[in-house]
């Protein structure tokens, strides 16, 4: 277990009696939840509103939670997903998952500004990645985003999507195979 996971487990154990523990986990999870919702909605304001609703529901239901950091993370993502579903139901609209936005891609390593040719190549490669991913089904984009952008393990993804851990592995494998075909 990494030091980060160990620290998160310690904080999760103290969640209900220690406000500072919740604040630290909140600081860790907020950007991840926001980026997840941003990919799913395509709008910063909507993602901000849904992030707020998510953490409000987390606070309201914190007494119902018991478990470690991994379970807590999956629980918060599930609440975010439920807020997203409620949002789409109330607005009668459906937005395709964006998966990677320019903001997501800017987190990837880029060459120094001094190397203009390399910078151009990196930007073009990022644009190509966005095009390829947009050809995948929404469910494939979602599972790849949870795995590679949100850096969740298969067990956490299974809890969020309410599927078996083996099904996560199969879906990831199929999505990666499809992505390879699209890339050719």
CATH architecture label name of the domain at 1-98: Orthogonal Bundle
End-to-end C-alpha gap: 38 Å
Mean pLDDT: 81
Residue share in β-strands: under 5%
CATH fold naming of the domain at 1-98: Rna Polymerase Sigma Factor, Chain: A
Measured on Cα atoms, how large is the radius of gyration?
18 Å
Helix and strand content put the structural class at mainly alpha
- Envelope shape: globular
Largest sheet: none
CATH homologous superfamily placement of the domain at 1-98: RNA polymerase sigma factor, region 2, helix turn helix motif
**pLDDT under 50 segments (min length 5)?**
107-111
SS elements, strand count? 0
Instruction: Please tally the helical runs, counting DSSP H or I stretches of 4 or more residues.
Output: 9
User: Which CATH class of the domain at 1-98 applies here?
Assistant: Mainly Alpha
Q: Provide the succession of SSEs.
A: HHHHHHHHH
Helical residue percent?
over 70%
Give an overview in words.
The protein is mainly alpha-helical. The protein has a domain at 1-98: Orthogonal Bundle (Rna Polymerase Sigma Factor, Chain: A), CATH 1.10.1740. It is built from nine helices and no strands.
Notable traits:
9 helices; 75% helix; 184 residues; Rna Polymerase Sigma Factor, Chain: A; globular; mainly alpha; single chain
What's the helix and strand layout?
Layout: H1 3-14, H2 19-41, H3 44-60, H4 69-91, H5 102-106, H6 116-134, H7 138-149, H8 154-161, H9 165-183
């Amino acid at each position: 277990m990494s030091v980060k996971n160990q620290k998160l487990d310690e904080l999760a154990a103290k969640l209900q009696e220690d406000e500072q523990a919740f604040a630290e986990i909140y600081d860790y999870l907020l950007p991840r939840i926001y980026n997840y919702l941003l990919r799913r909605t395509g709008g910063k304001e909507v993602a901000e509103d849904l992030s707020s609703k998510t953490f409000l529901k987390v606070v309201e239901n914190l007494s119902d939670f018991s478990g470690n950091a991994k379970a807590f993370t999956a629980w918060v993502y599930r609440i975010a997903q439920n807020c997203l579903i409620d949002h789409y139901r109330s607005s009668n609209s459906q937005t395709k998952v964006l998966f990677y936005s320019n903001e997501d891609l800017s987190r990837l390593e880029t060459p120094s500004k001094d190397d203009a040719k390399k910078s151009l190549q990196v930007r073009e490669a990022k644009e190509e990645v966005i095009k390829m991913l947009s050809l995948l089904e929404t469910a494939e984009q979602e599972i790849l985003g949870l795995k590679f952008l949100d850096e969740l393990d298969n067990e956490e993804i299974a809890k969020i999507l309410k599927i078996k851990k083996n099904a996560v592995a199969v879906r990831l494998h199929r999505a990666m195979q499809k992505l390879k075909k699209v890339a050719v």
